[in-house]
Amino acid sequence: MGTRLASPERIAHTRVGRIRERVIREDELIVGCRTSKLKGAPLFPENKIKWIATDVDRFDKREIQRALITPEEKQELKETIVPFWEGKTVEDKFHGILPGDVSGEMDKFVYTFMLQITYGIGHFTMNHRKVLTKGITGIIEEAAHKYRSLSEVDQKSEKGLFYDAVIRSLNAAVLFSNRYAEHAHHLSRRQTDPKRAEELARISRICRKVPQYPADTFHEAVQSLYFIHLIAQIESGGNSVSLGRIDQVLYPYYQRDIEKGAMDPDKARELLSLLFLKINEIWNVLEEAYIPGGEGTEGKTTQNVTVGGVDENGKDSVNALSYIGLHAYADIRTVQPNFGVRVGPRTEDLFFLTAVKYAKDGVLLHFFNDDGIIRSLVKGGHAIEDARDYGVVGCLEPNAQGKTFGSTFASQFNGIKCVELALNNGRDLVFGFPSGVATGAPENFSTFDDVWKAYDAQVSYFIGQLVKGISCLDQAITENLPSPFASAMIDGPVEKAMDVTRGGAVYNSTGVQLIGFSNIVDSLFAVKKAVFQDRYCTLRDLTQWLSGNWADAADKRNYFFNHVSKYGNDEDDVDEMAAAVLHHFCDRLSGCRNFRGGNFWPGVFSVGFHMTMGALTAATADGRHAGNVLGNGITPSEGAARKGPTAIMNSVTKLPLDKVFNGLNLNMRFNGKHISDHGLAGLIRGYFQGGGVQVQFNMVDGKTLEDAKKNPDRYRDLVVRVSGYSAIFVNLSPTAQDEIIGRVQLEL
């Protein structure tokens, strides 16, 4: 793994060293680290080495996500690690097999999958129930049995090598936990405080037992779950490895301890809080060029935890641990984990109101509608039992817990750029050269249908190129970076003798996120309304104003921005356009198959790409200036929603949400002091009853955000929702801060 970097926020607690040092910090009860530093991150040169060579001298000089690194570590990177990996990485393999026409398209800023090149696939949950009940020894025996059942020829083939790699990785996991057992035992014998000595002795006994053997107690189950989570984070650089439904996974152990009198709710709450704090230690160093796509010192790890919802039989599964998980997260209010609450018509009111109260008070939860998501997953090909048992990975992507290798954040698609190209015969207005399909001069378009056909041609072409590119990237990952440990933790690979990167999991989707959704809708509607219906101007007039970034046309921009209907106001004519745009995107991806044998899944969430791609997009017909941020997920554009929160939600529920299998985000901002618990609960309930699938809130007023930007030292603990994830506000770039400040503060 090479060098470990430390975030400056916790530099007082850093210590140079490598993971084999088995760090157990003062008062820890849940143990395990990716690095010896409290807030440290590994680099993954096997994925991509060029960015490390380029960024190494700037890690500790960055304005955003500064990472401390010693001169000795820089020297090791430059003289040893970078030279070793040159020509051997996933990126090198990818570019070696990528067709020339696709390679050329990657620099046109219509789509990107560079984050996956740099950090791997990630974005999965594991079958923790299996580990907790069978232990690693049980899974090793399962893999060994499968290996022994192969023919002699197959044992020497790819199948035999797969089982060998799985068994080796599982044995390594046992050694990893045993090292912590030895270290805890050593520390306990040196400890002078009897209470701490007993805690360390208990940690030693637990780490000697799990995850090697089945867990019996709640503490053992939490430690085992964390070890498995941590080791998966060590295996590859993929972001968003997630825990999923912890209340369902851990509840049997909690209940057993409660019945024996060995556990009480407060102790369980403490252990879960400590688990969440350990999760918060895990972060990744982002390539500087892509920091706007995932801002924050936590490096966009988005490790999702989910509570609530129904079980495989459709019955409400809320239990005591669902409440305890909520309380534990509210106790610490850290950036990680990314905490989700599943809600349905069968969810008990007390649980829902507890979550709502925390959200109103500023705890950054996001809410998921069970009925809508389960219906969508079934439509996307999940068995009903697996759909009901969905976990959430990354920002907000639902899929079957422990059965899916979904590559949910594989690519980001700048749909509004396709509108720009459609209105300019394929020419990019930012850089001035032909980028898209030649679809004809706009002055020759006699109807809006001509515009739509040009837009369709651009979208269809670039999605086709994207699909070919992702296939090459998936092949490069399979050949250079298989994941035998993750393969043992997800259902399917051991049964099939096939690594998860080859398609071994039960479900194998690939997510493509539509960026700038609201801008696409409002721009196409503006063209239809102003040009072809009201005859306010010609299409040639409009394209000239856009090419000039509305220069000397302020009155024209004012008309398009303020006097043409916008998505998010519950107006049927523009909302019909929104539904058409989303249907179109989903339909163009439908039927596209990925390298692992699964389907491409549409999503509408942006992380930070609405800022990055906005900077590379020309002025748009909705009145937006060139370079400004784009719409965030399914949320209306900044300043466009003028009729309140219920109008926004009504517009969203008119969309074909059941076709957006990969998830979407709706951001809303209120002043938490001016809203009641029952008012917020009613808003969410009404939205979900109407078909909405996800919503999240910032409960901080604009004045506070403005003051935090001016006086960051006073607000070091101010955490906000950026898109599908959270970040410390004062650590964001000015662009990201301004985007959050500019979001409409709604009232109920």
Polypeptide structure, described:
The chain has 748 residues and is an alpha/beta fold. Among the domains are: 4-43 and 49-88, no CATH class; 125-216. Helices cover 47% and strands 9% of the residues. A seven-stranded mixed sheet has the order 4-5-6-7-14-13-17. Strands 3-10-11-12 form a four-stranded mixed sheet. Strands 1-2 form a two-stranded antiparallel ribbon. A hairpin with a 3-residue loop joins strand 8 (390-393) and strand 9. Helix 18 (448-480) runs parallel beside helix 24. The longest helix has 33 residues, at 158-190. The protein is globular, with a radius of gyration of 26 Å. The model is unreliable at 1-20 (pLDDT under 50).
Topology overview:
Layout: E1 4-6, E2 40-42, H1 50-55, H2 71-85, H3 90-97, H4 100-105, E3 111-112, H5 114-119, H6 128-148, H7 152-155, H8 158-190, H9 194-209, H10 218-235, E4 244-245, H11 246-260, H12 265-281, E5 304-308, H13 320-332, E6 338-343, H14 349-360, E7 365-369, H15 370-379, H16 384-388, E8 390-393, E9 397-400, E10 411-414, H17 415-422, H18 448-480, H19 484-489, H20 493-496, E11 510-515, H21 517-533, H22 539-547, H23 554-562, H24 572-589, E12 600-603, H25 609-612, H26 645-653, E13 667-670, H27 677-689, E14 694-698, H28 702-710, E15 719-721, E16 726-728, H29 734-741, E17 745-746
Parallel strand pairs: 4-5, 5-6, 6-7, 10-11, 11-12, 13-14, 13-17
Antiparallel strand pairs: 1-2, 3-10, 7-14, 8-9, 15-16
Helix pairs in contact: 3-18, 6-8, 8-9, 10-11, 10-12, 11-13, 12-13, 13-14, 14-27, 17-18, 18-24, 21-24, 28-29
